Amino acid sequence: MSMFCYQCQETAMGTGCTVRGVCGKTEEIAKLQDLLIYSLKGVAEVVVANKIDVSEIGEVNHALINSLFTTITNANFDGDAIAKQISAILELRDNLKKKYGNVPVKDSAVFTVETKEEMIQKAGEVGVLATENEDIRSLRQFITYGLKGMAAYTEHALNIGKENLEIYKFMYHALAEIEDDSLTADDLVKLVLETGEMGVQSMALLDGANTSKYGNPVITKVNIGVRSNPAILISGHDLTDLEQLLEQTKGTGVDVYTHSEMLPAHYYPYFKKYDNLVGNYGNAWWKQLTEFESFNGPILFTTNCIVPPRKEEIRERIFTTNATGYPGCPHIVPDEKGYKDFSPIIEMAKKLPAPTQIEEGEIIGGFAHNQVFELADQIVEAIKTGAIKKFFVMSGCDGRMKSREYYTEFAKQLPKDTVILTSGCAKYRYNKLGLGDIGGIPRVLDAGQCNDSYSWAVVALKLKEIFELADINDLPIEFNIAWYEQKAVIVLMALLSMGFKNIHIGPTLPGFLSPNVVDVVVDKFGLAKSQTVEEDMKLFL
Ligand code: SF4
Ligand code: SF3
After folding, report:
1. Res 7 pLDDT > 90
2. I need a labelling partner for 145 at 20 to 30 A (CA). Which of 69, 320, 385, 439 fits?
3. Is residue 321 located within the same domain as residue 438?
4. Does residue 4 fall inside a structural domain?
5. Which InterPro entries has this protein been placed in (predicted)?
6. CA dihedral 390, 396, 397, 403 (to 10 degrees)
């Protein structure tokens, strides 16, 4: 076995990628990512052992979240960039030791490596399989993946200038705890829930950051057709990158289209003033190889998910920023004021043909918590009269697996008195089906990106209050979540920590959950795997 990774839903055979990632990750990238995580554990050891006040170590906090984010599925395939990041983390770790003293003895806090080869060799000793007990390994990885998702949301908030020091503090604490061999499985289950609680905080932080800067999302119809100008496609989740791109393309004759998880940007009032923000092109991330081809113009990745481009012609049009990276693709870094120079992308766009139309029409979204609260009377009335019998939270991710057709079929077969609450790229499985409305309320309500799953938790709490229920699980809300990468893991953990029970996830259970850990989550939280559409329809209704 040359590598081992089982962090995402597409992991080979449902158990682990051992030769090459299904995502395209090579042994080298997998190992460098393992070592980056291990280096972060060393930093955490130093911070925790020395009781360092996190408000004094801003640079380390930011490197921590950026590094965790770098290891998320489909974010970074650039080995040189990851190796550089490892060296930077080790330098920060050693500077902390010099400044704060009290060096802990754990290997993660003292090991040294110089070259990429040494890094790869060291990684062989410290990867996922270094923990022999499969249940402890499972819980440690569950927490690690939750932290990765949390880091992504925290970084987007940071880009807007918003931070919550408690989140950093928790991350160091959790990374140090998962290095601690004295912790039992029960201790780690407790830490899973604590991670979920902090996940709620990270989504709340990002929600606050996004809405304070860009306004509360409002109901919006988004064009899915094209115009005749040359254009740039922006993908990922970072709204500050979109803002800078729109500012820099203003008046240049270059249009901007969103892709995949950037679609919800259209819902924010702030972006409506840009008349060159034309619409959303294409679908979820996994369709990018064909959609990038017909888009014709350059593509900017602000976060995952990158699919390694098979054609050189497409690779040449890809730019990355933030935690993303791909070998040979220009990576745009901000100056000390946070300004990113997107002029190479704009210049490239001007020389390329306009996008080829692949769809036409509009899709509707913008149902984040504030907008839903404005419709509260209408929704409560519809529940009371029985016009709406049930809500189905179908947030999460989309992916390549054929079995994900389940979600389209499930949406189609849901009775007409049910409403789908969605967020994340999972929506592309049913947001163009034309499922109609119930007295003016669309049957698919899109709150936004995966982090906006937070909105559905807020809405559920509000409904619990309105209907004066003792238990949130007494609401007519079912959860049928599609997961793919580690942001969905933190969303799931957050829901569990909030007390939501009987959540169904699919298309498969996480490969990183060992049989015993599966038993615990089934027992404690009623977590279940989605079955066939027919079986689940019977069960839910
Ligand atoms: Fe495999 Fe997923 Fe890991 Fe990629 S991220 S190597 S597909 S488990
Ligand atoms: Fe999608 Fe990658 Fe998870 Fe943000 S963009 S939800 S998969």
Report:
1. yes
2. 320
3. no
4. no
5. HCP/CODH, Hydroxylam_reduct, Prismane-like_a/b-sand, Prismane-like_sf, Prismane_a-bundle
6. -40
Domain check: are 282 and 315 in the same one? Answer: yes
> Closest-lying ligand to the alpha carbon of 511?
1
What is the span of the domain harbouring residue 325?
220-350
Within-domain flag for 81: yes
Whole-model pTM: value is 0.97
Look at residue 358 and tell me if it is in a domain: no
Q: 374 with 306, same domain?
A: no
Asked if the bond preceding 507 is cis, omega within 30° of 0, the reply is: yes
Whether the per-residue pLDDT at 522 is higher than 70: the answer is yes
Is 237 known to sit in a ligand binding site? yes
How does pLDDT run across 99-136, given as a tens digit for each residue? 998 778 899 999 999 999 999 999 999 999 999 999 99
Do the annotations mark residue 450 as ligand-binding? Answer: yes
Q: Quick one: 394 and 479 in the same domain?
A: yes
Q: Tally helices (H) and strands (E) across the chain.
A: 19, 16
Kindly provide the residue ranges of all beta strands, DSSP E only, lying in 476-521, ordered along the sequence. Answer: 477-482, 504-506
Do residues 199 and 237 share a domain?
A: no
Answer yes or no: is pLDDT of 357 > 90.
Answer: yes
458 with 513, same domain: the answer is yes
Return the number of other C-beta atoms located less than 10 Å from residue 439's C-beta: 11
CATH number for 490: 3.40.50.2030
Based on the number of CB atoms within 10 Å of its own CB, is 106 exposed (0-12), middle (13-18) or buried (19 or more)? Answer: middle
Q: What is the CATH number of the domain that holds 121?
A: 1.20.1270.20
485 is in an annotated binding site: yes
Ligand 1 pocket: which residues have CB below 6 Å?
Answer: 5-8, 10-11, 17, 21-23, 25, 30, 73
Tens of pLDDT, residue by residue over 460-511, are: 999 999 999 999 999 999 999 999 999 999 999 999 999 999 999 999 999 9
Please list, in sequence order, all residues whose beta carbon lies within 8 angstroms of the beta carbon of residue 99, skipping any fewer than 6 positions away. Answer: none
**Average of pLDDT values for 251-277?**
98
Query: What local confidence, expressed as pLDDT, does residue 1 receive?
Result: 61
Distance from the alpha carbon of residue 255 to the mean position of ligand 2, in angstroms: 24
Last residue of a domain, one of 306, 323, 350: 350
CB hemisphere CA count around 185 (13 angstroms) = 14
In the predicted model, what is the mean pLDDT of residues 39-57?
97
Both 383 and 494 in one domain: the answer is yes
User: Do 194 and 150 belong together in one domain?
Assistant: yes
CA dist., res. 318 & res. 411, Å (int): 34
- Ligand 1 centroid vs 70 CA: distance in angstroms? 13
210-228 per-position pLDDT tens digit: 999 999 999 999 999 999 9
Angle, helices 453-466/486-497, rounded to nearest 10 degrees: 20
User: CA-CA distances (angstroms) from residue 256 to 159, 221, 226, 350, 412?
Assistant: 21, 16, 10, 12, 32
Q: Distance, CA 65 to ligand 1 centroid (Å)?
A: 20
- Read off the tokens for 484: 């793919």
The residue out of 213, 233, 265 marking a domain boundary is 213
What pLDDT, in 10s, does the model give residues 410-441? 999 999 999 999 999 999 999 999 999 999 99
Residue 303 lies in a domain: yes
Q: How many domains is the chain partitioned into structurally?
A: 3
**Secondary structure percentages of the chain, helix, strand, coil, to 5:** 50, 10, 35
